[in-house]
Design goal:
The chain is mainly beta. It has one helix spanning about 15-30, and strands spanning about 60, 70-75, 80-85, 90-95, 100-105, 110-115, 120-130, 135, 145, 150-155, 165-170, 175-180, 185-195. The longest helix has 20 residues, at about 15-30.
Length: about 210
């Protein structure tokens, strides 16, 4: 399935199981003899706790001028969107409903963030300023989903630079929004496609380079 904007969202629950079974029938003995080495991964640091709720999603806002000043943006549920430095210290917050999923893309030289607000059933848009260390809301108007979302991801088209947001819902909803700048320097959105899947689609991710 390939929605508009060169993006394909894969739902792997049944497909992955079927593919795995087919692979076992074709090359079962060979697979049985191949064992991946176990790898231990230990954390080397942690952020300060979020003010309210758990940090269920996070993205890195990369500072290309000074990578040491890159920022971690994390959803803090009813605490909104929180921003931490690379040492884990909490530096700023942007209130806004019940944040549940977040993604980011660079747009005109600044990191733009899209956040899923489950409380209001909407997409919130903001921009982060590395100079001030603060974020501000930039949506021209509320982008209402009409349902409590489960997942969200952004895609920037390699063909024309168009920015898209995808939102998924607990009853199989899948919406594609075109995000575009306004004359006032904000971002507006237009629903360009609405699909309905046979079951819940909880997460999504988009690869800008491949369009998948």
């Amino acid at each position: 399935m390939r929605p508009q904007g060169d993006t394909m969202i894969h739902r792997r629950q049944h497909l992955a199981a079927a593919s795995a079974l087919a692979l076992l029938f074709v090359a079962g003995p060979a697979l049985a003899q191949t064992t991946a080495p176990s790898i231990s991964v230990a954390p080397v640091g942690a952020t300060a706790p979020t003010a309210q709720g758990g940090a269920n999603a996070a993205v890195l806002l990369y500072n290309s001028v000074d990578p040491r000043k890159s920022v971690i943006a994390a959803t803090g549920e009813l605490g909104g969107l929180e921003f931490h430095d690379l040492d884990g210290a909490r530096r700023a917050a942007l209130p806004g409903g019940e944040t549940y999923a977040v993604d980011t893309r660079d747009l005109d030289g600044r990191p733009v963030l899209a956040v899923l607000d489950r409380q209001a059933g909407r997409i919130r848009l903001s921009a982060f300023d590395f100079a001030t260390g603060q974020a501000q809301a930039i949506e021209a108007r509320p982008l209402m989903l009409g349902y409590a979302g489960e997942g969200l991801c952004l895609h920037k088209s390699p063909r024309d630079g168009s920015l898209y947001a995808f939102a998924t819902g607990g009853e199989g909803q899948l919406d594609q929004w075109l995000l575009y700048p306004t004359a006032e320097g904000k971002l507006d959105g237009r629903l360009v496609r609405r699909l309905h899947l046979s079951s819940e689609a909880k997460y999504c991710v988009a690869d800008d380079a491949s369009g998948a």
